[in-house]
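Input:
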Amino acid sequence: MKAKGKEETAVGAEILSGKGLTRVFGFGPNKTVAVDHVDFSFKKGEIISIVGESGSGKTTLAKMLLGLLKPTEGEIYFAGELRDISSHKKKRQYWQNIQAIFQDPFSSYNIFRKIDAVLLDCIRMRGGRRLPYDQKRAMMEEACSFVNLKFDELTNKYPFELSGGQQQRLMIARIFLLKPKILLADEPTSMIDACSRATILDMLMNLRDEIGMTPIFITHDIGLAYYVSDTVYIMEHGVFVESGSADDVILNPQEPYTQRLLNDVPKLHEEWDLSTV
Amino acid sequence: MSKVILEVNELTTKYITRFREDIYAVDHVSLKVEDGKSIGIAGESGCGKSTLALSLMGYYFPPLHYSSGEIIVDGRNITGMNPDNVRKTILGNEISYIPQAAMNALNPTQKVIRFIEDVIQAHNPRVTRQEIYELARERFELLGLPADVLQKYSVELSGGMKQRTVIATSVILSPKVLIADEPSSALDVTSQKMVIKMILDLMEKGIIKSLIFITHELPLLYNVTDDIMVMYAGQIVERGSADEVVFDPIHPYSKALMGSIIVPEAGLRDVKLTAIPGTPPNLKNPPAGCRFAARCKFAMPECQAISVNLRDTGGGRTYRCIIPEEDLRKAYENES
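Output:
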């Protein structure tokens, strides 16, 4: 019943926030602080990007948000309430609200399970276990056609029989069925080439309008972040060094780190300054 | 006109699958690279970029097989050479190749210097270790890499450093042509910049004479190479200078490809990225006509039937389309 109340949250209300979120790996001389007392507040419906280089702690943060890693310190609030994933049941409930797409579609699927099973699982998670098969099939067909795949060609196949772009689209079809409130996309387009990238981004944006979710992009591609998002967070060594609206951060960066990142990206209309390496 | 370093005429190579099917991944590709020039190859995954890179070396191993055409390196025809001979006399000496995940090429149980010794001694067994060390140290310093890297194991180096070490090693014998296949795709922007700077340094300092650079990242290609070739389904569909191909593409495929570029510059958010509908054709039985026809917005009925050769516009630009250049330009204008 609680979940129902949350759906009515007004647009712009806080959906996910964190206070002093920290994660430490190792101890003693090998201690690494991957995420260091990070505060954030993501609003419902806005598109958020977290940008940083390898090793900046983006993925660790994503894993904590998903509940796959326990924070060493700090709290995460979901829809205004402290997140509670202490039991398996609560965790499953939480995962109805937050889902992820990962970088590498080739390693995101169980290789022993067919595509039908992947999609049926999603229907089951949304409480459609007892639906007649025809109805389930119609749902799967709808989800596949949303991402320009044909269910008739996929049924009885294994995910690894598809190309990388197709697998990534199947991942989006999963999200379409699950209708989560938050989607964490961890480098969703870095393994696929530039022309399929536009397709994937289009689909994610359509999905956002369709089911009203809040997408969070985690990426090292500052151009992608600028293109898709409303709010950009720049992460360096586990800390957000700069955040703000995409136009402010990208076109008028204040922090030297952001300036350096932008300077290092090859561009079309500005000369790429190779002397600053 | 300066000297042509690498000339490829109508090169066709194929994969033979275990079902004995022929897949022509590189189909009648011709190109010329002059001394001091670099050429970029762009295209989506599966269009044959990497196969072209492998084919250019003249070193074929199953399932890749040579079919027809010729490769001439600095006046020497290397087609039909015995693979062992190619490996001993061409690879490393004349043509060097950096694969996509070059950093994984380092043996974790050996120091970097042993790796370099292997490379040099494979071509000239008489060189002593001392000579190799001196040569390697000099070369590494010239390229801005610390000489103590030589005494390290690969696990002690960062990703970008490993990549640069492998590149420095692969050009240790000063080859004439360097073929770089996505040398920076696994790195973040700062390491990518260092790798690119090093490759450009190699050209500038005369260690290599010409460069073939393969990537699907167009902004990078635009900044690195003089010329760009766009590849689609095993064929070259357009070639021109980097400026021309990026800002003024002729072929509908290149046009669509340029519409998918994302760079963090003002104005990007006002543009809608174009996605190309459909998928590339299966090369097992490629279409009889234009290979892009099925996905092309401007396709006419005859596109499906007639296959077109590359058309020269004059001024070194070529494109493969049945529609004349002016009509294509008009169509693009009407669209926008």
